[in-house]
Write a structure and sequence with these properties.
This is WYL domain-containing protein. One of its GO terms (molecular function) is DNA-binding transcription factor activity. By secondary structure, the protein is of the alpha+beta class. Helices cover 43% and strands 23% of the residues. It is built from eight helices and seven strands. The protein has a five-stranded antiparallel β-sheet with strand order 6-5-4-3-7, covered by helices on one side. The chain has a two-stranded antiparallel sheet with strand order 1-2. It is globular. The mean pLDDT is 83.
């Protein structure tokens, strides 16, 4: 196999990986990444389609894989596997049990596709990496996974929220906007509060009850960076 053929094969595999990891992939971004022409990417996409890969073309938007199609397991490099193991240690410091469970389930699947030698190295690294934790801080929660789903699907959330300043619990309907966390400490939800008619910070351990409603809200146009610059005094 010539160098040119090897280069194209590597590119086809990379395009498949990118299609699997993103909702939409444009020919322009792929062409720029591999420093080839857009016309070359068109030919690559056609080659993949002829090989039986169900690629959907969305005119003016890009390419995506048909729902339900799954590629064979990806082989991770040693550095990539090490990064996942290190990240696992950080996640285990987290105070939200729903995030820990979801990550552990995910990392277990990742470990399952590692080669035997890589599994041994990952196990060794897992035993030899640790992060210090403030044992005096017992703030916990179990809402993160549900809130993440509501945030990305634009669902209104109903919460019963405790305010220590007033020593009272109020029911709020909020539109989730963003999430912030100090490693090893409590999570905060930034949300538009319909009761206060403004953005508010909701600390997870003060949320007494939560319900993800079926009601949808219009996505917020402000970016997280815009919010942080405008409301920096809250942090």
């Amino acid at each position: 196999m010539s160098d040119k053929e090897i280069s194209r094969l590597s590119r086809l595999i990379a395009i498949l990986t990118q299609l699997q990891s993103k909702r939409l992939v444009t020919s322009t971004e792929v062409a720029e990444k591999f420093k080839v022409s857009v016309r070359t990417i068109y030919r690559d996409i056609k080659t993949l389609e002829q090989a039986g890969v169900p690629i959907i073309t969305e005119e003016g938007k890009g390419y995506s894989l048909m729902d339900g199609f799954r590629l064979p397991p990806v082989m991770f490099t040693e550095n990539e596997a090490n990064a996942f193991i290190t990240a696992e240690k950080l996640v285990l410091l987290n105070k939200d049990t729903s995030l820990i469970k979801s990550y552990v389930d995910g990392i277990t699947k990742i470990k399952s596709v590692l080669r035997s030698n890589a599994k041994d190295k990952a196990a060794l690294l897992s035993e030899r990496v640790a992060f210090e934790q403030n044992s005096g801080d017992n703030i916990t929660s179990n809402f993160l996974s549900s809130i993440q789903i509501a945030l990305t699907n634009f669902n209104v959330i109903s919460v019963e929220y405790y305010s220590p300043n007033n020593d009272e619990t109020t029911k709020r309907y909020i539109e989730p906007f963003a999430l912030i966390n100090d490693v090893g400490k409590s999570w905060y939800l930034i949300a538009w509060c319909r009761l206060r008619k403004d953005y508010r910070l909701f600390r997870f351990d003060r949320i007494m009850k939560i319900e993800i409603t079926d009601e949808k809200f219009t996505p917020h146009k402000m970016s997280l960076q815009d919010y942080l610059e405008r409301y920096r005094n809250k942090f």
